[in-house]
């Protein structure tokens, strides 16, 4: 089977010489297409000073529209794990969270800020952010709390959407493939007059059949089977069908010379999304609905040397989980609201930039629990608000004939926690607040043409949740007491690196070393009366190397074509967490859910005459996870009796039942895509996800889809 796909790749690559000249766009115009590879000239939207990538001292990566179109991914989660060396925690059923640089990815503790066009994304679930309207994705690695406040400890992911002007144009994409998957994407945008432009996008994605898992492992299959269990190979992952809809709109109106308003809105609907639990369904199965509405506007203008931007935003996301299995839990509903504004003044003094601004954001969480009879019961925690107001300043200096770039910044955040009263939990309304100050400094110096050294330092923080610092509430026999003395989690990070970039030579290279000290990690603890509370206890140290490298052979022929080899690799030298056992003895251990090595690599070819093809590989390194895949009897507490899960009459991982910690295997996941455009308007394409049918997980027991084929037809107008 491997030989078959390699042969197909070679034949498709050889196909491009027979393309007729009259069937392709003008070659002169085509050369402009490849110029987006010169990423050094891209202005980074999330930098807050509108600086170009080549001038920023921090570690920043950009996923271009070319990569997005070549990827089989339909959402941000799928794109990031294929195209950036990051850590992801992903479950079947449209659920994923991401992190970087040794910070644990978790659905409950977020160390990475997710933005859309520089504003809060309105969701904590990146698997629910569709790619239909995305122009590029900016990945800012390292501490960025001085720019964006709480949670920007591991980094920032900024999703930049399309902003079409000029002649009206559009595109319709239809796809169909494995697991009865059908997709439809429609996009339209451009100017309707000198003063008005717009973008409109719609996406539909349906998987009508439960997916199958992979049937092999490219590396050390014996060890992989001991962890994944043989029952998960080439098996049907039941209860994984779903349907999603996505609508994006933007309306731009020129108000006056140098002044414009962009009104934007979005709607996302996940309908009857099946969630299987683990492969063996030992904790039951559910179904869920996701509905999200986002709206806002950006007023941008210029007064002398001042570039002003005012951006209010509002989002409302509702999640409903319906119990369809026998897990002993009822239905669950939650509402997440995110609203506020950003006000920025970017001032230019010669070649230097000063940006200062005011951010205000309210995050409101509401939830309702139901028992198995459908009656309302006490929620897991009270409803609460986190209200953050931040003042920041960022300065960029260009010195020594632009060879030296210096960045300085600071931010002060006031965060107020409000806990709402809840009769079912027996808690009163309460609140707490505090201030947090963060800073950053960075320098980049061009030693020779294209060769630069860069270094940066920054501190960052993660604010606790309101129920962790305020109030007292009881659910069943368990009482939780907030800790008003709880500090935010904080970190300090140093980056050192070298880069060499030459668009003319087709070379892009960067190697960065990072070192982070993370302290005051928030954990659950117990008071003398056995009530639960939260304390600052754990700390962690992470350091590692990041390598980004690519070479385009097209540079040898003045980019008459593009043939690019690329690698994006992260190696964690150390990711150690320090904690104490029940007796207070100090202990150390490896960070959970964090891979020791991650990489994306591959080759892509574009003849700039209508044909393109891409082979992308992903290396998923070892990670540690606590072992929860067993049946436990707590009737003789504190003694716990463990028994293996039984699936289809066979015991699952019987030899691992008593293992507290599992080291998960290495996986290699390859994707292939090819497309051919003809008659200027039509494109046909093929993509194969998980080309070698690897059986792998992003979370223990939650196996990902095996090999999947998709055929695509597009019409551009």
UniProtKB/TrEMBL annotation:
Domain TonB-dependent receptor-like beta-barrel: 202-691
SUPFAM superfamilies linked to this entry: Porins (SSF56935)
Subcellular location(s) per record: Cell outer membrane
InterPro entries (alphabetical): Beta-barrel_TonB, Beta-barrel_TonB_sf, Plug_dom, Plug_dom_sf, TonB-dep_rcpt-like
Membrane-topology annotation of the record: Multi-pass membrane protein
A GO MF term: siderophore uptake transmembrane transporter activity
Biological process, per Gene Ontology: siderophore transmembrane transport
UniProt main location, coarse: membrane
Signal peptide residues on this chain, from the entry's feature table: 1-21
Keywords from the UniProt entry: Cell outer membrane, Membrane, Receptor, Signal, TonB box, Transmembrane, Transmembrane beta strand, Transport
The TonB-dependent receptor plug domain, residue ranges: 53-156
GO cellular component labels: cell outer membrane
Database matches in PANTHER family: HEMOGLOBIN AND HEMOGLOBIN-HAPTOGLOBIN-BINDING PROTEIN 1-RELATED, TONB-DEPENDENT OUTER MEMBRANE RECEPTOR
Family: Belongs to the TonB-dependent receptor family.
Name under which the protein is recorded: TonB-dependent receptor
Organism of derivation: Marinifilum breve
